[in-house]
TrEMBL record:
Record-linked Pfam families: Aminotran_3
Entry annotated with the keyword Cytoplasm: no
Keywords in alphabetical order: Pyridoxal phosphate
Protein name: Uncharacterized protein
Lineage, broadest ranks: Eukaryota, Fungi, Dikarya, Ascomycota, Pezizomycotina
Amino acid sequence: MRSSCAVSSAAGHGRTGKLFAIEHENVVPDILTLSKPLANGLPISAMVTSVEIDKVCKDKGFLFFTTHANDPLVAAVGEKVLEIATRPSTMESANARGEQLLAGLHRLEQRYGCIGDVRGVGLMAGIEIVSDRESKEPAVHLAEELSKTMLQLGLWCQLQSQRVFRIGPPLISTEKQIQKGLDILESVFRTTPNTQPLYESQSQSTGWRPELVCRNLLDNMESNKQASGNNNDGWNAVVGTSRRVFSPAFRSESRHGTISTEEDTQAETSSR
């Protein structure tokens, strides 16, 4: 006979988008233990099991005792926590905000080489800080520096095992609050030395400078407007500028019109 036991502490009560994290694996354990989140931090825990196992415990005289047994305060809080955690809106919010959080963390992973891995589900995520992505060598000192800067900017991310940031926002976090946290993380990784920014090497190798592109487009449009007094001529300046700042194959739709290369413009003129 095989038995299973699952611990659902920080990963329970809706944090992962389901009431208990083990539900993601479609497993029904023989014993499920619950603790801290059950009463939002107050001293309460629980062991959930089957009728069969409970009967065996009674027959064998098993005794469970705790200092806080029958405490009315924590019992009332625990009941309310379960009522809120089982609301459909709680699960939906954890899923939605969790997707937002993980998407933002994966964007950071694409921008900074010191992030060796991003993992998690729902509103429970982890960022692993490494000195090399291939070897996964931990960057302990860098992780500590990142942690200090996060705290200075008002963001608390628990650093575990000296290299993994454990991120678990409150279940009631709003879209705006999650985005603010992601913005702080971006600022921390951007300003801390040795985070191995990847966007710098990409822009240098391709010559892609978004801020210069926008500035050139606007400057050329404004100059042409002043010279001709015609908005359409101003847009023609943007079309001409695109030849210099975009690749020859570039063609993009916008709400104003189509940015084309000079070759596209000549071809369209000839066809008329």
